[in-house]
């Protein structure tokens, strides 16, 4: 071997030794010494992605080290963080609950034996797999789109409802609820529904079926009709009207048996032994709050505020049959109602037709009922067009609808009536002081004025007629007057729908009063239907900005809240009369108006405006504060004899865990599902600061029912 090759060999051997044992180099040949230490290396194994909220097990492997212990970091933070995810000492990574931005994180393992030895992998975070728990599909009216509501979990921004394999327009309500809209569907009874979460990691839920529920009315339309036609919507009633439709509900209500108030017992119950008005008011409240004939009761209430009698001056025992008469006649013909009202002992006593005798020669009969029957009950002070606007003479002045001479003529036509006998017959004495409140007044012929009487529009009642004939002629004269339709219909619209009906609205309803389509004048059932189904009454069903409605008078405010909150009477005797104690400070109790002009006049206008707003005549600074006090009593279950449950265990209390759901439910009950977004957000944000579910329910309810948007029925 040559010296060169030997030198090469010796160099190779030294390099080999250096690699295996290390080289101690000196001037001579390398000799063996301590072993050479290789650098430690770390590697990581595990899945390359994780869905939010899930876990991934990472494993760290260390080479060239006597220790396998490592410490873990996420995005450089030992143990990780809530935003990027956390990792245990054993390498179990838990992805964050929400998607980070960017959606990748770094997972690092560092050798505990050598801090310089580490490894890092990138972990992609994906959206969760959505889970569908339930889905509803509601179609309101044939040919309309289908409203979808899907509940479940793990819904994220950008999630879409998929119907039959195709995504539909979707709104994310929360991580547990989506709402969407599918196109019209005919012939199908179910829809195949899933939820698709978007990238990163797009994933679909399992497919489920939703039964298509076909409704006849929207929630808003149903709730608004009930607000106009009852003493307050309930959730059950709203759902029922959605099922049967607005017209179907009215048809049901027209057919419902009337709720009749019982006479006050003799002797009276202990609660009203010294004041029978208390029992009369108790029965009125009971019928208004619990009667199945809600529309009939509400229309009767409107008539009671047009044809006013008051227990401030008449016996409570006469108010009950008067109320029952209004209830029975509410859907009949107005001519019947006019006669029954005229002959009722309550009206007779209140406006002095009872015991009004024929006048002596040169004297006049009592004019009270004759005047008010025209001025307030039938035709008003001035001649009207069909749309309720006044007719004007050539000088632009209003034209009086009657004269003083005609008042006196009507007064004589109404003479000779007194209390009927116990069997309902005519007494032999006049006046009859044996009071019979249940029967109509009876005629004593000798006390009736039989002279001729010139009435309206040239009508003359000839001399020699009986009291019954004169009464029929006088009432027939009023019934035929052109003012009656617009005068009466405008007031009914004000009580049921809107303080300021347009002249066109009044005209349309007055036309129905004049002819129900079958040639019949005065058909109240047709009139009520026309009022409630008119385009102006229904405009707010689809347009929440439509200007209409009226201030809730105190009675309707109280009944609306109580029915909406599912009140329960807890009085051991079933007494309802304590409710009058809560509306009296606000200026109203059943059958207790201060005068024949009702609690508020129909033509009252808000000062400084031309807006007619009858109920505002009893609204002032004091009553505003008292209404807030009443609302506080309601939400804190402080109405004597009643329970309004807003505890943590109540229906609304159970919803309080989700403030949005709680406020939405209140919006359905009290605002027809039309609570403005700003108001909703304000209430949700406020109650979210409260931890007690009952307090959340109470505060949310209070803020809703004291808002101007509830006080004024829209």
TrEMBL record:
Signal peptide: 1-26
InterPro entries membership: DUF1800
Keywords, comma-separated and alphabetical: Signal
PROSITE patterns recorded: PROKAR_LIPOPROTEIN
Coiled coil, from the record: none
Entries under Pfam families matching the protein: DUF1800 (PF08811)
PANTHER family: BLL7424 PROTEIN (PTHR43737), DUF1501 DOMAIN-CONTAINING PROTEIN (PTHR43737:SF1)
Protein name, UniProt field: DUF1800 family protein
Species in which this protein is naturally found: Granulicella rosea
Source organism phylogeny: Bacteria, Pseudomonadati, Acidobacteriota, Terriglobia, Terriglobales
């Amino acid at each position: 071997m040559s010296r060169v090759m030997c030198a090469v060999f010796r160099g190779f051997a030294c390099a080999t030794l250096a690699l295996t044992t290390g080289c101690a180099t000196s001037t001579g040949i390398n000799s063996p010494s301590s072993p050479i230490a290789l650098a430690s290396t770390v590697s990581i194994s595990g899945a390359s992605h994780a869905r939010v909220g899930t876990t991934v097990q990472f494993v760290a492997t260390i080479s060239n080290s006597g220790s396998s212990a490592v410490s873990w970091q996420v995005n450089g933070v030992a143990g990780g963080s809530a935003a990027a995810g956390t990792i245990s000492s054993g390498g179990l990574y838990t992805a964050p609950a929400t998607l980070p931005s960017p959606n990748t994180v770094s997972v690092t393992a560092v050798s505990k034996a050598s801090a310089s030895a580490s490894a890092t992998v990138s972990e992609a975070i994906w959206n969760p797999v959505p889970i569908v728990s339930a889905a509803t599909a509601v179609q309101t009216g044939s040919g309309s789109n289908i409203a979808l509501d899907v509940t479940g979990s793990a819904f994220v921004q950008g999630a879409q409802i998929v119907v039959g394999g195709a995504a539909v327009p979707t709104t994310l309500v929360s991580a547990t609820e989506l709402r969407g809209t599918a196109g019209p569907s005919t012939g199908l009874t179910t829809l195949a529904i899933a939820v698709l979460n978007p990238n990163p990691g797009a994933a679909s839920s399992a497919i489920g079926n939703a039964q298509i529920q076909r409704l006849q009315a929207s929630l808003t339309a149903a709730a608004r009709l009930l607000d106009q036609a009852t003493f307050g919507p309930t959730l059950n009633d709203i759902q029922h009207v959605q099922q049967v439709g607005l017209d179907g509900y009215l048809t049901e209500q027209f057919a419902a048996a009337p709720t009749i108030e019982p006479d006050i017992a003799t002797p009276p119950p202990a609660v009203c032994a010294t004041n029978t008005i208390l029992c009369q008011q108790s029965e009125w409240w009971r019928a208004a709050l619990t009667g199945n004939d809600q529309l009939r009761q509400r229309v009767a209430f409107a008539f009671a505020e047009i044809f006013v009698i008051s227990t401030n001056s008449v016996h409570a025992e006469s108010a009950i049959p008067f109320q029952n008469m209004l209830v029975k006649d509410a859907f009949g013909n107005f001519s019947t109602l006019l006669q029954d009202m005229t002959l009722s002992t309550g009206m007779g006593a209140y406006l002095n037709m009872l015991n009004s005798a024929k006048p002596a020669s040169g004297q006049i009969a009592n004019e009270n009922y004759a005047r008010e029957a025209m001025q307030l009950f039938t035709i008003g002070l001035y001649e009207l067009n069909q749309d309720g606007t006044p007719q004007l003479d050539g000088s632009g002045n209003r034209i009086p609808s009657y004269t003083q001479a005609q008042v006196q003529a009507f007064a004589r036509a109404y003479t000779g009536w007194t209390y009927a006998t116990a069997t309902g017959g005519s007494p032999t004495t006049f006046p009859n002081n044996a009071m019979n409140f249940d029967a109509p007044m009876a005629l004593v012929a000798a006390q009736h004025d039989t002279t001729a009487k010139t009435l309206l529009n040239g009508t003359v009642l000839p001399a020699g007629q009986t009291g019954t004939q004169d009464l029929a002629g006088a009432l027939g004269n009023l019934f035929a007057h052109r003012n009656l339709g617009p005068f009466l219909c405008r007031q009914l619209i004000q009580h049921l729908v809107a303080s300021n009906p347009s002249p066109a609205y009044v005209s349309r309803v007055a036309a129905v009063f004049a002819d129900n389509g079958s040639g019949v004048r005065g058909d109240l059932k047709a009139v009520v239907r026309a009022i409630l189904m008119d385009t102006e009454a229904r405009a707010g069903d689809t347009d929440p900005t439509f200007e209409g409605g009226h201030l809730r008078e105190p009675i309707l405010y109280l009944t609306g809240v109580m029915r909406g909150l599912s009140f329960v009477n807890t009085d051991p005797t079933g007494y309802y009369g304590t409710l009058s104690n809560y509306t009296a400070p606000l200026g109203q109790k059943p059958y207790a108006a201060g005068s024949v002009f009702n609690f508020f006049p129909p033509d009252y206008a808000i000062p400084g405006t031309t807006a007619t707003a009858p109920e505002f005549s009893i609204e002032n600074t004091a009553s505003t504060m008292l209404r807030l006090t009443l609302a506080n009593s309601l939400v804190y279950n402080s109405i004597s004899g009643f329970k309004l449950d807003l505890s943590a265990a109540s229906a609304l209390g159970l919803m309080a865990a989700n403030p949005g759901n709680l406020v939405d439910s209140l919006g359905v009950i009290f605002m027809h599902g039309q609570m403005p977004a700003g108001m909703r957000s304000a209430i949700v944000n406020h109650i979210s600061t409260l931890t007690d579910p009952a307090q959340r329910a109470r505060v949310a309810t209070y803020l809703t029912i004291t808002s101007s948007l509830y006080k004024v029925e829209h």
